[in-house]
Every structure is written in structure tokens, then in C-alpha cells.
Amino acid sequence: MKPSLEPGLYIVAGPIGNLADLTPRAAEILRLADVIAVEDTRVSAKLLRHAGSDRPMVPYHDHSSDTLRARLLERMVNESVALLSDAGTPLISDPGYKLVRDARAAGRFVTSLPGPSAAITALTLSGLPTDRFLFMGFLPAKAKARADALAEVSALRATLIFYESGPRLSASLAAMAEALGDRDAAVSREISKTFEETVTGPLSALSTRYADAPPKGEIVVIVGPPGEAEPASEEDADAALLEAMERLPVSKAAGEVAKKLGLDRRELYARAMILKG
Question: H-helix or E-strand containing 147?
């Protein structure tokens, strides 16, 4: 008798390139699930053949209707539903969070099988700090929206992770250099595939490299955190205090400059009293 799975939702991480990266547990779930919700049936069919699965597939993607999601939730009452994206871990810049949210709200069993993620794999390849990072997904295509998105995170002391396409790569790297400063970065593509490549360097140099030769394949850009700011000099502090005192009382001016330059408020207040004369 064929073993069965507990009814509910199984989030299955698939390979990001090399089919051999599919975990044995993930392959088993794909063979046993009653139905598999996939981003693209043509892409997932190759993985199911590799896993030895003949289970039926239903398309589930960003444009799927609420009605389809409701049907999947109803099936989870008595059946096991596996969720599979085209590559890597579902929900990481892929559809699925609404299905997970609604399954939890309905009291369905939900579990996730750990596996590959292009964002995390590229981070480990980059040689950049990994203790604090933010996944940004794809930047907006329009220049103004892209600049606004980068401005929101320009001061964040964390490594940034982006997905990007080959034709947009050079322009995005140039926009990052302008908005974030010419930070150290890494461009990884075709991870786990035959032509895997990771190129490191300043953002401006990477933008120039790919300007006339857009790369092919899935691309991840890793951008290092901002460097330590140079400590403010006495001249900088005096100039900031004099400007602030034109608008504010001495105490508030000292507080504003202390916050702006990262200096001691009491020392700035004493200095402000001297400058005020």
C-alpha cells in the first residue's frame, strides 16, 4: 500500500539549477502529494520526472484567482497539496504567501521543507558580510521608482541582496553606485549550473563590465554595507553648531548636531556656549 501524507500544505524547495540538489525528502513529498501547485507546469514537469513523480499539477502563480486559492484550501481538508516554484524556495520572490496565510487562517496543516535559495547561496559566494542582510528582490524598472527604493535603504548597515535580469543589470548597478555609494559588490549568475560565475568589485566597475555585455541566466547582486563614516572634525562640528544656532536655542542646537554627527551632546553644548561668546 502506498504511504500517504497528512492533509495540508507542503512548501517544497526545489533546485536553483542542478537537479541533484533536490533533497531526498523533497523528492518523496513530490511523489506522495495528492496534487502539486506549480508556477509553470512545463518547468516543473522536468523536476517531477527527475524525482520519479507522476502526481497531477495545477498552475498557481502571481495571477492566480482567489477562487483557485479557495479550491486548494478546500482540498487541504482531505488531501496533501505541495507548493513548488520554478526554482529554489517558494515565496522568496515567488508566489505563495497568500496561500500560506490563508491555509494558516483556516487551520490547515502547513510545513516547509528546507532547500536551495539563490539569494542565500549568492550571499555565501560574495565574500561580503553575512551577519546582517536584507533581501530586496527585483528593483522597479523605472528609474525614479528604482532610485526611491534604493534611497530607502541607503543608510542601512546591512548587506543588500537583489535579483536582476541581464538586460537591466548594468543600469541597476549604476543606479546602486549613485544611490548607495561605490560599495563593494558581487554579481552571481547561473548558480549550481555549468557556467556558474561570481564577479566581485566596486559597483561602478561592475556596471562598466556589463554595459556592453549583458550576462545571461539568473542573476543575484550582493552589495556590501556602507563603510564606517569618518569622525566629524572640530571644524565640521563648529560649522554645524553655528548653522543650527541661527535657527535654534543653544541646547536644541547641540542636541541636533549631536544626533547628526554622532558626537557627545554635553561637549557640543559647552563648545556652543564658547562659540556664542
Answer: helix 143-153
| DSSP tally for the chain: helices H, then strands E | 11, 10
Measured in residues, the chain has a length of 277
Q: Give the other-Cβ count within 10 Å of 166's Cβ.
A: 15
In which residue are the cell numbers 547561496 written?
A: 121
Q: For residue 1, list its beta bridge partners.
A: none
Strand 80-84's sheet: what is its strand order? Answer: 57-59, 35-38, 80-84, 8-12, 110-113
* 94 band by pLDDT with thresholds 50, 70 and 90: confident
Angle at 90 between CA 49 and CA 107, to 5 degrees: 110
Instruction: Quickly tell me which residue has 496565510 as its cell.
Output: 101
Q: Are 224 and 184 in contact (CB under 8 A)?
A: yes
- Name the residue among 82, 91, 98, 78 with its Cα closest to residue 37: 82
Q: Are strands 219-223 and 184-189 parallel, antiparallel or unpaired?
A: antiparallel
Give CA–CA dist 228/40, Å, rounded. Answer: 45
Q: Residue 217 — pLDDT band, cuts 50, 70, 90?
A: confident
pLDDT at 199: 97
What pairs with residue 11 in β-bridges?
A: 83, 112
- For residues 190 and 180, is the Cβ–Cβ distance under 8 A? no
Distance between CA atoms of 201 and 187, rounded to whole angstroms?
9
Whether the pLDDT of residue 276 is over 90: the answer is no
- Helix, strand or coil, per DSSP, at residue 30: helix
Residue 95's pLDDT is what? 76
Is the pLDDT assigned to residue 197 strictly greater than 80? yes
